[in-house]
Design goal:
seven-stranded mixed sheet
């Protein structure tokens, strides 16, 4: 079967397969780079384009109509390049299919429209990166919408947009835009992706389904209008996302901005040098509160930084400091470092979590280690440009948190992350303590934080999810009362002796990557424990807390379980902690 095709530019062909496959030909070598794989049938007619071989294939997103032919391409010697956010759906398809919920399922991501089996790749295309692929320079742009991990490739002025849009005012699939059961996240994100794509002034938009669009501005305007109507009809209110994209910051002072584009607030401290320091930076420009999930459903990106350059003359984000380790506050830190050379500074306890997430059994961990250029001891300060910042331990919302104090434009400010809501008022509106037990909460944490606030006496408190709060003596006293109430509520509920409860005993690291027959160490937080191991495994106890474990398996094992069995004062309390071990063969 001969597939229809047409030439749409110099050495550029479009082939009508299960999706439109674009071939960028190098006449000097009679080779080509492909955009998407389709079914692979088009490989049978390479000679008609004066091509002997495809050196590389760039995948815009993971859907099966884009990648069905990828195994054939790789077998022919082509190098496969895929969006970083969706790489696991290509290279580890078996794991995805085994773990994907299909019963009582409220997750509407279209990740079941993906490869049936794994395919090896040459590498992942990182967001905002410029990379030489074959004979081409390729700029990869994050364009979530049709899928959270979709990308657009910008090559020689052409934007290969995948299924971001079909034609002016139309999309290839409305169902793909509904990521959650009651939302229209993909529609709003498509709008934001399209508007940002125009910043790069493409000469044409080349979709995976549809025809080339040679007036990108008109296509974007008409598609955003249509999607805006869809969102308003389904949700009963406009999305508002493009307004946030255009004006992401609220000026708290001339040199302190609050980013309002996400449910998790971040802040930009501006230097007269033309650089900025960010306090927190998780999921910029989102449509709701992050709920976690597989890596391919979670997408940090950097849209608000365009306004820092445009409106405030900021040419570089030099430093990012987290109030705590949760993903909605740090998800984009690695991306900031890769794209802008941003250094991450953190308090020593927070830095250890960021750099070693596998050590911890905690909620809201980011998937990858986040290297920290500075580890700052709690209770000490550090200078950045014209500012002095002090970091203080702030247990409560989580044990691994910092209050960050500084003075800007003559006002003392304290960033408190997610510690409390700031909702107290003298007329009776309550202050809500935002504690979660799994974050290693202790009953007196809010007593400690209230004492810290009384000592520091900030004039403005900025938080991770709520509006900034001007601080008065009455508000500080209310926080002191709140701390006492939190402690009293727990003292009245729990037994007077030191309680043992789920999470009080821990094994670290919690997730271990091991090799058959090779020893690894784990530490149990309480003395007097013994390890419970899979059959055939061995262990040796080196002291009250430290154990050496030697795994023995016949085949690779994922998430083998070991446990700490605890006896206290002669009473056996059970297996109170576990750790998970992946074991591979040598």
């Amino acid at each position: 079967m001969t597939l229809a095709s047409r030439q749409i530019g110099a050495n550029l062909y479009a082939v009508d397969d299960s999706c439109t496959v674009y071939l960028l030909v190098d006449p000097a070598t009679r080779t080509a780079v492909a955009i998407d794989a389709g079914s692979g049938t088009w490989l049978d007619q390479l000679a008609s384009y004066s091509v002997d071989a495809v050196t590389d294939v760039l995948i815009t997103h993971h859907h099966r109509d884009q990648v069905e032919g990828l195994p054939r391409l790789v077998a022919s010697g082509a190098r496969a390049w895929v969006p970083e956010n969706e790489a696991d759906l290509i290279t580890d398809a078996d794991h995805h299919w085994q773990g994907r919920r299909v019963v009582n399922n409220y997750d509407l991501h279209t990740d079941r429209f993906s490869l049936l089996g794994s395919v090896p790749i040459a590498g992942a295309m990182k967001d905002y990166s410029l990379r030489r692929i074959g004979h081409l320079d390729v700029l990869t742009l994050p364009t979530p919408g049709h899928t959270p991990g979709s990308v657009t490739y910008l090559v020689n002025g052409y934007a290969f947009t995948g299924d971001l849009l079909h034609s002016p005012g139309r999309v290839w699939s409305a169902a793909a835009l509904q990521w959650s059961y009651v939302g229209m996240e993909g529609a709003a994100m498509t709008m934001a992706s399209l508007v940002q794509l125009l910043d790069h002034q493409p000469q044409a938009l080349l979709p995976s389904h549809g025809s080339p669009m040679t007036d990108p501005a008109d296509a974007v305007r008409r598609t955003c209008d249509a999607l805006g109507r869809l969102v308003a009809v389904r949700l009963g209110t406009p999305t508002g996302l493009l307004d946030k994209l255009e004006s992401p910051y609220v000026e708290l002072s001339p040199h302190l901005l609050m980013n309002r584009t996400s449910e998790s607030r971040s802040y930009a401290l501006l230097s007269d040098s033309g650089s900025a320091l960010l306090i927190d930076y998780g999921y910029d420009l989102t449509t709701g509160i992050p709920t976690g999930g597989p890596r391919h459903t979670v997408r940090p990106w950097l849209p608000s930084l365009r306004a820092l350059r445009r409106d405030y003359g900021i040419d570089r984000v030099e430093v990012a400091i987290p109030t705590h380790y949760h993903d909605d506050h740090v998800a984009a830190f690695n991306l900031l470092r890769e794209v802008h050379g941003t250094e991450v500074w953190a308090s020593s306890p927070v830095a250890h979590v960021l750099e070693n997430p596998a050590h911890y059994d905690l909620p809201c961990l980011w998937y990858d280690p986040i290297p920290c250029a500075r580890h700052i001891p709690d209770g000490t300060g550090i200078r950045w440009r014209e500012y002095e910042l002090d970091l203080h331990a702030l247990p409560g919302h989580t044990l691994y948190a910092s209050a960050i104090g500084f003075e800007v434009n003559g006002r003392k400010v304290l960033a408190t992350g997610d510690q409390q809501t700031g909702g107290w008022s003298p007329d009776g509106s309550p202050e809500i303590p935002n504690f979660q037990y799994a974050n290693a909460f202790a009953a007196d944490d809010y007593v400690a934080s209230a004492a810290l606030y009384q000592r520091l006496r900030p004039e403005l408190m900025i938080s991770g999810h709520w509006d900034p709060r001007s601080v008065t003596p009455d508000y500080l006293d209310a926080l002191t009362s709140l701390g006492d109430e939190v402690a009293a509520a727990h003292r009245g509920l729990l037994l007077p002796e030191d309680p043992v409860f789920i999470g009080a005993v821990r094994i670290t690291p919690y997730r271990v990557d091991a090799v058959d027959g090779r020893p690894f160490e784990v530490r149990v937080s309480c003395a007097g424990a013994r390890l419970v191991l899979p059959s055939g495994w061995k262990s040796e106890q080196l002291d009250d807390h430290l154990f050496v474990v030697v795994p023995h398996v016949d085949q690779p094992v994922r998430r083998a379980r070991i446990a700490a069995a605890v006896t206290r004062e002669g009473r056996y309390l059970g297996q109170l902690a576990e750790a998970l071990v992946d074991v591979r063969l040598p």
